[in-house]
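Checklist before submission:
- one chain only
- standard amino acids only
- sequence pasted in full

Submission:
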Amino acid sequence: MKKLLFALVCFVASLTFASCGAPTPADEAAKCLELIKAKDYKGFVETIKFKDEDPAKVEKQKEFYCSMFEQKADKTFDKKGGIDSYNLVSEEISEDGSKAKVKFELTYGDGSKDDASFDMVLVDGKWMNEVNK
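Returned file contents:
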């Protein structure tokens, strides 16, 4: 009986440790899509890794992107009845594990669909959207 109890405890512990792994690029992409779906554009912009390192320039870029989403993307989403759901299609991680592309499909309230992707980069152990402009 003690062996069975020990085996059960080991099994539960292994499941607990396995579920505590680092988020994948697809996990982070799903979080980004949830932010966009909720129209939390400020939150979404915080997931972007800007190429520039100057904090003042990065802050201006964040403001620009947030404004762009609020003005343009929001109107586009509204015309299509908002984002109803999304489906993560694929996750391709580079050989060195530092970059990834996550493809997804958006389904809008009117039933139309769009395919898109996020280019992700690993920054200090966290996956972020990469902006190269």
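Reviewer check: The chain has one domain: 23-131.
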